[in-house]
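Database export, one record per block. Field names are fixed; values are copied verbatim from the stored entry.
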Amino acid sequence: MSFQAYLDAVETKTGLAPRQLVEKATEQGFGPGTKAGPILEWLKNDYQLGRGHGMAIVHVITKGPSISAKHVGTAGTHSDASDTLWLDGAASNPLG
């Protein structure tokens, strides 16, 4: 599953685009420098997200939408179309 696919699945599970979850995380006091544990606990309690999907959101909360180009354009199951994640909802993704 690609990184973007994880974010799209989170949107399906929660009804919130990743950017909306980042905004809600900021309201909770989470951001760069926050450890994963408290964010994962919040995501589990409030949105019933497991660790895998939660870690995708942790990344964008703590590091923003940029990801490593390691899997960009590869043929594997982890292939992403871009090294920048789309946070504004799967339906509006120009690459998806």
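Remark 1: The chain has a mean pLDDT of 93.
Remark 2: Residues 51-63 form the longest helix (13 residues).
End of record.
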